[in-house]
Amino acid sequence: MIQEKIHQTIAILKEKGVDLWLTFVRESDTVHDPSLDFILGTSVTWQSAFMISAKGETVALVGSLDETNIRSRGLYAEVIGYVESIKDPLLGVLKRLNPQKIAINYSLDSPLGDGLTHGMYELLMGYLSGTPFAEKIISADGIIGALRGRKSPAELDRIKAAIKLTLDMFSRVSGFIQPGRTEKEIAGFLKEELKKAGVTEAWDPDYCPSVFTGPESAGAHAGPTDRKVEGGHILNIDFGIKLNDYCSDLQRTWYILRDGESEPPAEVMKAFNGIRDAIERAAEALKPGVEGWMVDKLARDYLVSLGYEEYPHALGHQIGRFAHDGKGLLCPKWDRYGKLPFDKVEEGQVYTIEPRCTVKGYGVATIEEIVVVTGERCEFLSPPQTEIYVV
Amino acid sequence: MIQEKIHQTIAILKEKGVDLWLTFVRESDTVHDPSLDFILGTSVTWQSAFMISAKGETVALVGSLDETNIRSRGLYAEVIGYVESIKDPLLGVLKRLNPQKIAINYSLDSPLGDGLTHGMYELLMGYLSGTPFAEKIISADGIIGALRGRKSPAELDRIKAAIKLTLDMFSRVSGFIQPGRTEKEIAGFLKEELKKAGVTEAWDPDYCPSVFTGPESAGAHAGPTDRKVEGGHILNIDFGIKLNDYCSDLQRTWYILRDGESEPPAEVMKAFNGIRDAIERAAEALKPGVEGWMVDKLARDYLVSLGYEEYPHALGHQIGRFAHDGKGLLCPKWDRYGKLPFDKVEEGQVYTIEPRCTVKGYGVATIEEIVVVTGERCEFLSPPQTEIYVV
After folding, report:
1. pLDDT tens, position by position, B326-377
2. What's the CATH number where B111 sits?
3. CB proximity B337 to A under 8 Å
4. Which residues of A touch B86 (CB under 8 A)?
5. Most buried among A92, A176, B227, B241, using CB within 10 Å?
């Protein structure tokens, strides 16, 4: 799969008119540049440079003790080991490749395109200082965004497998949800499922899964509590797994009937159906060429038109090796998202769609689905939740 | 333990005359600043600032959806959530705290002090631009180095537990090593031990453990191969585990007798004893106040005086949450180590000592021990290997 992604990189470099992509790292087990997972798949100790050119040249420059390991991967046509300093061999390779643009891994907007630490940036610029290369540095965030976003068939298969297993787990936990159980007990049931399946959480184990029951719950990004499920609660679960290095990220919503109720109250149904329909509308608009904010705005405006507050987050994010992956985001034009809302949607990207409504006195209604962008539209990878689950 | 490390931080800030330490992160599950493990212990999604002052003020500024989770930790006296942009609340807090120096997480020399990405650095400097705070930025690497290096009793206990379990595993694998077994089989035995104990590798699972047998082996930082153990081989294993978030990192050396041999040949014994004695000499010199290069030089010069080539790496590194941890390093004054060789050894630091000798025609003799620096000297945390193990 890494070989496949390196080939894809070369095509992306050509498409974007960038000669050379330079990934500059050290001690990659500690502060880890996530681009390495696509172009190396192991770790290095000393300052190392991985260079891929639009012409298809591939050069790895590594500390001498890492040389055998890197060479054994067979990914780089040239593997050069050094002992005392990377500076001279690095300048030597750059002179030979003679790039007009050198893309490096920093980005103001995209966390995953921003794997180069500031100290490493300063070191690199020190090495290049006084050479023509210092003027040729650009951000690689477009390259990294494309590489992470445009999933290969093999990557897509892994995501589908993760989704399928997660939905199985959702269907089993559904039978476990009942009045008197706590958020922690319900989360514990899913933790046990993870253990049995031998897979890990897609994000911070402290709040994966998140379980929120009732009107007093945190509603997002918080761990499960001792709060008990009661009649009249909306309960939602945000859960994802990592299977074979690729993630799922899904949310489902339940309603717990009160004594005497035979169906959820009208305001709960209105919110749930609003969410469901907002997802439908967003999915219809999600296709190559649109900008992320447009899709977010559709869902956001629709829910506001129903009388709900704006949800305080993006409508959706990409998934991949991380639950939050890729560059483009389906998000509003808020400062904190920088230029990400203006990124164009591309074929092969996998997005979540996850609007939310707070229903006063009941809880938070959310659904999170996953779609892949195809040639002219998008397709659901998770069969959408169309009815609220009633307990 | 995090509360304990935050208290320690306040003392370190006072000692170093720095008003404020600012850790600036986003999507901390993906590109993870390792300082967060000491001051937070969970993850955040949006741009977030964790501020600790020499006066003991603690302020966390996080995206609104992360607020509940961060507040629930009880680590920060003030937790402030924001929705659209962190800029104004951040400048508000800085005005109130009014620091003269603001330490941020970048370092040219120390990978673990360099958790701030370049894009995040640019964002931060953009926010501070036009305010007096832009001129007050300094590197936090001294603070982070002290915080990671000076182990609390609880941290030391965890390292001791990891070492003990690793030595148990070494003693069991010793009975498994015999002619005809491959490096991969021997590594597989230790992988099985990890699984049984429910612990993980201390570094990249591809080469933890490393097993090297005979004169043709890679010798360091490479995965095990199908090479078979034979009479006349020196065999060494480099192995570490992570137990309760803290690591071990140890090496042991065996010699495989040839038919008719009753003990290792003289050149093998000379190298093994040379390594053992180099460790002894280095440990005698390792005490608070000496600079790392001095300790490295002692071992390095001793082995050169016996006729061996200089080992192509540092004599030792600190361990902690990572196998390679802390700032100060027992290393030569080579470019690639920057200013690290000149860092002074401090009480409470835990170092490996791991010189090596190549013995032509036999393999690589190495031992790696772990010591803790005490008031006036250092103490071995691993009972040293004093005799080569003979198979």
Report:
1. 998 999 998 778 888 999 999 999 999 999 999 999 999 999 999 999 988 9
2. 3.40.350.10
3. no
4. 336
5. B241
B389 interfacial to chain A (CB closer than 8 Å): no
CB of B172 closer than 8 Å to CB of B193: yes
Q: What angle do CA B231, B236, B241 make, to 5 degrees?
A: 145
Whole-number pLDDT of residue B219: 65
Please check whether residue A45 touches B, CB under 8 A. Answer: yes
Domain termination residue (choose one: B148, B164, B187): B148
Contacting residues of A for B64, CB less than 8 Å apart: 312
Single-letter code of the amino acid located at A4: E
CATH number at residue A217: 3.90.230.10
Residues A324 and A236 in one domain: yes
**Shared domain check, A166 and A142:** no
CA distance B90 to chain A (A): 13
Q: Does the beta carbon of B115 lie under 8 angstroms from any beta carbon of chain A?
A: yes
Q: What is the mean pLDDT of residues A64-74?
A: 90
Domain boundary among B129, B148, B167: B148
Q: Does B81 touch chain A (CB under 8 A)?
A: no
Phi, psi of A333 (to 5 degrees): -85, 60
Q: Is A83 on the interface with B (CB under 8 A)?
A: yes
Q: What is the mean pLDDT of chain B?
A: 95
Instruction: Of A28-32, A215-219, B296-300, B387-391, give the lowest mean pLDDT range.
Output: A215-219
Could you tell me which residues come within 8 angstroms of residue A371 by beta carbon, excluding any fewer than 6 positions away?
Answer: A283, A286, A350, A351, A353, A378, A379, A380, A381
Picking from A72, A221, A318 by the largest number of B CB atoms within 10 A of its own CB, the best residue to mutate is A221
Verify cis geometry, omega within 30 degrees of 0, for the bond prior to B383: no
Residue B373 distance to chain A (closest CA, Å) = 23
Nearest to A372 by CA among A355, A354, A353: A353
Candidates B30, B126, B312; nearest CB to A111: B30
- Looking at residue A221, its pLDDT comes to 72
pLDDT at B222: 79
Residue A334 pLDDT class (50, 70, 90 cuts): confident
Are B312 and B276 part of one and the same domain? yes
Range of the domain at B190: 150-390
Residue with tokens 């608009």: A285
B122–A113 C-beta distance less than 8 A: no
Average confidence (pLDDT) over A178-204: 95
Contact B31 A112 (CB under 8 A): yes
Regarding whether B62 and B48 lie in a shared domain, the answer is yes
Domain match, A245 and A139 both: no
Please indicate if any CB of chain A lies within 8 Å of the CB of B89.
no
Q: DSSP states of A75-139 as a string?
A: --SEEEEESS-SHHHHHHHHHHH--S-EEES--SS-GGG--SBHHHHHHHHHHHTTSGGGGGEEE
Portion of chain B with pLDDT greater than 90, in percent: 88
Could A218 and B68 be called an inter-chain contact, meaning their C-beta atoms sit closer than 8 Å? yes
- Cβ-contact B162, B247 below 8 angstroms: yes
Are B115 and A69 an interchain contact pair (Cβ–Cβ within 8 Å)? Answer: no
Which tokens in the block code for residue B207? Answer: 């080469």
Q: pLDDT, tens digit, for every residue of A136-154?
A: 999 999 999 999 999 999 9
- Residue pLDDT, tens place only, B174-192: 999 999 999 999 999 999 9
Query: Token match 């390679």: residue?
Result: B324
Which three-class secondary structure state does DSSP give residue B42?
coil
Q: What pLDDT, on the 0 to 100 scale, is given for residue A2?
A: 93
Cβ-based contacts of B312 with chain A (< 8 Å): 64-65, 83
As for how many domains chain A has, the answer is: 2
Same domain, yes or no: A270 and A382: yes
A285 and A364 together in one domain: yes
Question: Residue B220 above 80 pLDDT?
Answer: no
Write down the pLDDT at residue B217: 82
pLDDT of residue A378: 95
